[in-house]
Design goal:
Structural class of chain B: mainly alpha
Oligomer: heterodimer
Distance between the termini of chain B: 48 Å
Number of domains of chain A: 2
Number of domains of chain B: 1
Shape of chain B: globular
Order of helices and strands of chain B: HHHHHHHH
Number of helices of chain A: 8
Largest sheet of chain B: none
CATH topology of the largest domain in chain A: Fumarate Reductase Iron-sulfur Protein, Chain B, domain 2
Radius of gyration of chain A: 21 Å
Helix content of chain B: over 70%
Radius of gyration of chain B: 19 Å
CATH superfamily of chain B: Fumarate reductase/succinate dehydrogenase, transmembrane subunit
CATH architecture of the largest domain in chain A: Orthogonal Bundle
CATH class of chain B: Mainly Alpha
Structural class of chain A: alpha+beta
Number of strands of chain A: 7
Largest sheet of chain A: 5 strands, mixed
Distance between the termini of chain A: 69 Å
Strand order of the largest sheet of chain A: 2-1-5-3-4
Helix content of chain A: 25-40%
Number of strands of chain B: 0
Shape of chain A: elongated
CATH architecture of chain B: Up-down Bundle
Number of helices of chain B: 8
């Protein structure tokens, strides 16, 4: 890499949740092994655009810097991904940064992803622990099942699958692939299975499993390579069985 | 089950949408293309098949409850589903995403095609009161005229191809939606099988169009009591 090489970042900015978005370009000196986050940090230290205009620093979210928390998810060169693992040397210039489009914007690259967490709450994406009484120890989980569950548990609720999903929009209630996959994860856990029917009943409602359109972009963009389409089909089976149960057994 | 909540109704409507695509609409499409392909064997077997259908008891009720209502329901739910979604295949160029777009596009094409198709066949048939044994000669004459021009042929080729693709790809989505096929390999294999099936249906339809276009035969009235 030549020493004098510069990096150009083109960033979509927005000052207020409901104000108009605008573009700004920043030129930065090339640093070896830089990623999008380190470039945003450089801009924060010296927020001067390509036109030599001093502006407010760009706002973004990040936390773990190792692609396990999902908070730095944004659209980089047109594709949704994490900024921390977007290495500058591997990206064509100029590097275009945009906030997620399926969530309300807070400011610049920061969005409000409350909807995802509300959906996890709706489907009870957790294992119940003892309440007023002891529910006892769960059975041993077979190794094959544990390995499968581990894959699903890698979901960091980053929102890539939802951003890329044509069925998930701001004006509908679809919960999206990540939530459906979490229903599968907690339903396959022997203790979590105690609430499986409640989870299925929730997902058999507005914005639930039936809203999936099988475009299967979710599985293509998932940074953790979670078998999301398999989860959707599996929950499709579980909800079909639940539907038959509701129709013929209850 | 007692009363149904709004959310449950939403789920059930989408499930019925998925189901009606297979039963009865998909079955009807298969039956329709298969029976019509009798035209490639000869005009007479084709004419007899139309006679059998038009002499069925309660035909109008069968048509209303097993074709028109499911078809209208499936169409309007389809337009609703398309309208609440936001296609993005330009940005996320994956094969399955294109199929997703094609599924919606072909659905709309078939809807428009069916308005034309019914407007030239069923509507004038009922309007002019051609029932029972009078239907076949009338309909075959209509089809001879339809396939006399390239415009007519292209309309039918596009309509048939859209319908067979929509059904074949829809079968695949049905199997996933109802949890019949689960794993990625099973899904891929199923998509190949269903596309082959769609190919067979397309061949049946195209062969019929070809036969009509190449050998338009003037139709003789079926004798009363031929069956």
């Amino acid at each position: 890499m030549p020493e004098d090489k510069t990096i150009r970042l083109k960033i979509k900015r927005q000052d207020q949740p409901d104000s108009k978005a605008y573009w700004e370009e920043f030129d930065l000196p090339h640093k070896p092994r830089a990623n999008v986050i380190s470039c945003l940090m450089d801009i924060q230290m010296n927020p001067v655009t390509r036109q030599e205009k001093t502006v407010t620093p760009v706002v973004w979210e990040s936390n773990c810097l190792e692609e396990v928390c999902g908070s730095c998810t944004m659209i980089i060169n047109g594709k949704v991904r994490q900024a921390c693992t977007a290495l500058i040397d591997a990206l064509p210039q100029p590097i275009v940064l945009e906030p997620l489009t399926k969530f309300p914007i807070v400011r610049d690259l920061q969005v409000d992803r409350t909807r995802m967490f509300e959906n996890l709450k709706k489907v009870k994406a957790w294992i119940h622990i003892d309440g007023t009484y002891n529910i006892g120890e769960g059975p041993v989980i077979p190794e094959k099942q544990r390995a499968k569950a581990y894959l699903l548990s890698e979901c960091m609720t980053c929102g890539c699958c939802l951003e890329a999903c044509p069925q998930f929009t701001k004006n509908n209630n679809f919960v999206g692939a990540s939530t459906i996959s979490q229903v599968r994860l907690f339903n396959m856990h022997p203790t979590g299975a105690m609430e499986s029917e409640e989870r299925l009943e929730t997902i058999m409602g507005d914005g639930g499993i039936a809203d999936c359109g099988n475009a299967q972009v979710c599985v293509e963009v998932c940074p953790k390579k979670i078998p999301l389409t398999e989860s959707i089909a599996e929950i499709g089976r579980e909800t079909t069985l639940q539907l038959l149960k509701n129709l013929f057994l209850k | 089950m007692g009363s149904i909540t709004k959310g449950q109704a939403h789920f059930l409507l989408l499930k019925i949408h998925s189901l009606t695509g297979l039963v009865p609409i998909g079955l009807f499409l298969t039956f329709h293309l298969l029976v019509n392909s009798l035209r490639t064997v000869g005009v007479l077997p084709y004419q007899w098949s139309i006679d059998v259908i038009n002499n069925l008891p309660f035909l109008i009720w069968i048509e209303i409850f097993f074709i028109y209502i499911p078809l209208l329901f499936h169409s309007f739910m389809g337009f609703y589903i398309t309208q609440v979604a936001k296609m993005n295949a330009i940005r996320y160029r994956y094969p399955r995403n294109w199929m997703y777009v094609m599924q919606r596009l072909t659905g709309a094409v078939v809807f428009v095609f069916l308005i034309y198709h019914m407007g030239t066949t069923v509507v004038p048939k009922i309007w002019n009161g051609h029932h029972l044994f009078e239907a076949a000669p009338f309909l075959i004459e209509v089809m001879n005229q339809e396939f006399a021009t390239w415009t007519g042929r292209i309309i039918y080729l596009v309509g048939i191809l859209s319908a067979t693709f929509h059904f074949a790809n829809g079968l695949w989505a049905f199997c996933i939606s109802w949890g019949i096929i689960i794993g990625p390999r099973a899904q891929r294999n199923a998509s190949i099988v269903f596309m082959l099936f769609g190919g067979v249906l397309t061949v049946l339809g195209f062969a019929t169009v070809l036969e009509f276009s190449l050998h338009p035969v003037d139709v003789e009235p079926t004798l009363k009591g031929a069956f």
